[in-house]
Design a protein that fits this description.
54% of the residues lie in helices and 0% in strands. It is mostly helical. Helix 1 packs antiparallel against helix 4.
């Protein structure tokens, strides 16, 4: 199998699972403040970094037109270095689904444009070859889709359907 075809399929599958979690999230869980990180912010975080890391490098990235500064961060982390994010107005479910559509629509073209043989990924805080970084990016989306799926299951008994290769 062609690695480009595989990457595209796995991106679409992991993003589909994230969308399913967002679609199923009840309004009272969307911005609940009793969680360490609200549902909306986890979903936005996963999309923001999927978008960012689909780029050739940091310089090629242009944030989504509705991006709010620091809304992509979940907490203070050493890499890329940032403090605890400021509180921002929550994105609505419609906002996140709009951004999801942007990210999903860009996958095929973005993956086609990447130099998957590059020895560096283009992001100074990651020391990975480009192909490894793309696999890492897919795993990151899937990780957050799983977190949101678990929240849904615990809160309302909803299940996010497993997607293999879309």
């Amino acid at each position: 199998m062609d690695v480009v075809v595989a990457l595209k399929g796995q991106y679409h599958a992991s993003l589909a699972m994230l969308k399913d979690a967002v679609d199923q999230c009840p309004e009272d869980l969307w911005d609940r403040s009793d969680s360490a990180v609200p549902f909306w912010r986890v979903a936005y975080h996963a999309l923001f970094f999927a978008h960012l890391y689909l780029m050739a490098d940091e310089k090629a990235f242009r944030a989504w037109e509705h991006h709010r500064e620091e809304s992509q961060f979940l907490g203070a982390l050493p890499w890329p270095p940032h403090d605890q994010p400021k509180v921002v107005e929550p994105y609505t479910k419609a906002d996140v689904l709009e951004y999801w559509a942007v990210c999903d629509a860009m996958v095929d073209t973005a993956v086609d444009a990447l130099d998957l043989d590059a020895s560096e990924c283009g992001f100074w805080w990651y020391k990975l070859p480009k192909l490894d970084h793309q696999i890492n990016n897919i795993r990151h989306v899937q990780h957050h889709a799983a977190i949101l799926s678990a929240r849904l299951r615990a809160a309302v008994g909803a299940d996010v359907e497993w997607r293999g290769f879309d």
